[in-house]
Amino acid sequence: MTLTNRDIVELIAWRRKLHQNPEISNEEEETAKEVVDFLADTGPHKVLTGLGGHGVAAIYESGKAGPTVMFRSELDALPIYELSGVDHASLVPGKSHMCGHDGHTAILAALGRQLGREKPARGRVVLMFQPAEETGNGAAGVVADPRFGEIAPDFAFSLHNLPGVPFGEVRLKTGVVNCASRGMRIVLEGKTAHSSMPETGVSPMMAISQLMPALPALGSGTFADDNFSMLTVTHAAMGEAVFGIAPGHAEVWATLRTRRDERMANLCAAAESLVTQIASQHGLSTWWDYQEIFVASVNAPDAVEHLRRALDEEGVVHGEEALPMRASEDFGLFGHSASSAMFFLGAGERHPALHNPDYDFPDDLIPIGSKIFMRAARNLLG
């Protein structure tokens, strides 16, 4: 159940290769090929590719009846220019693995090596390398893929590294661990005019100035409350970048966030009503759409207990501090059809934060993450 020193050296080298060649959401074609090639000699019973985009599922069968246990990692990087200064820094300008998905992928590859040496005694293990987590459409694409029925799991587990938590410690709890969220793009349409005669047009200026504070004011409750909701304006633009035209078009982008999925519908309805009211007040037409939709990640009690047992048996310190988090994670969608749980693996109290340009995944987390997953697999499947 343990990795050899050679395994660890090779996994670190491979993780750094992935780090140097990042591909952002929905573009992970070469990363997916790397995964398939790296796992080839571990002898999976079957490998599905192109799941929900560029997803890869490696299946390790026992040949005996039992549950299907899925472990999931992410393939995608971020559109961030890396400033870490490490020797294996991104070779692709403006793109980098600033969330550690390269490390999570290496952890799953480590699990594949161990399963290649000793298949599960019953049931089967699915290693799911998921695309497009950062945009929220990756898990949705995988679940919607007709072939997902071939691997529909009974249990689903995942992890995410977490700077700010002592290195190698785990944070895990039952219930909500990540918020539901979605991006709302609001478009306001009026009529342009010459800037010397603005009264002949219909400007969105007053409407956009009202929306900027009114949208965040829709939030309610404290984060400790299940009824918590939050709305953050992330972008606003109006008119053309010229002096001669009074504007006739504007956009406001906002992120809506709730602890519970049920609360999201109410927040959307309130935002839509507000936009309609303000647009009408100023003689504007309006429309909106939703993007980057994440459901809440809710850890099932039985899945959490399996992880806690694995942590205790491996001597990994764990607690519930720092959970739940406001940030979103599309792993939650797998919990709609499986008993699922995600844990958070400490990257160090002073480690650069996720999505920061100086972040790099700590390689020493690879054997820690993989041994937790392996112990959980063995406990469930013998």
Automatic annotation (TrEMBL):
Its cofactor is Mn(2+). InterPro entries: Amidohydrolase, Bact_exopeptidase_dim_dom, Peptidase_M20, Peptidase_M20_dimer. Residues 182-280 form the Peptidase M20 dimerisation domain. Keywords: Hydrolase, Manganese, Metal-binding. The Mn(2+) ion enhances activity. One of its GO terms (molecular function) is hydrolase activity. Mn(2+) binds at C99, H101, E134, H160, H355. Pfam families: M20_dimer, Peptidase_M20. This is Peptidase M20. It comes from Mesorhizobium wenxiniae. The lineage of its organism: Bacteria, Pseudomonadati, Pseudomonadota, Alphaproteobacteria, Hyphomicrobiales.
